[in-house]
Write a structure and sequence with these properties.
Structural class: mainly alpha
Strand content: under 5%
Radius of gyration: 16 Å
Shape: flat
Oligomer: single chain
């Protein structure tokens, strides 16, 4: 990919992917974060959400219950990192 098209793709990623998390997190985090922190939180959240796709190959996720447990762990991980109380969990016991 040439430099011009790469920059366009990166701009779209920032606008659509990271921008989605900026918009989603801003009312939740409010004024809790300052400076670069909101952008760092949005970027890290979008990155962590790709974990299973990028690194899940070395995990034993053969059953859907295993995938559900892994996703639940990642959501808890993100919430703890953002200092957010998760509250309601849609977890099958």
């Amino acid at each position: 990919m040439d430099k011009e098209h790469l920059l366009q793709v990166l701009e779209l990623d920032d606008k659509n992917v990271v921008g989605f998390y900026r918009q989603l997190l801003s009312p939740i985090l409010g004024t809790k974060m300052k400076g670069l922190e909101p952008d760092l939180a949005a970027n890290l959240t979008s990155y962590v959400c790709t974990f299973l796709m990028m690194r899940g190959r070395n995990l034993d996720l053969a059953r859907s219950a295993d995938v559900d447990a892994a996703v639940d762990f990642l959501v808890d991980f993100i919430f703890r990192g953002l200092g957010i109380e998760r509250g309601f969990r849609n977890r099958k016991q």
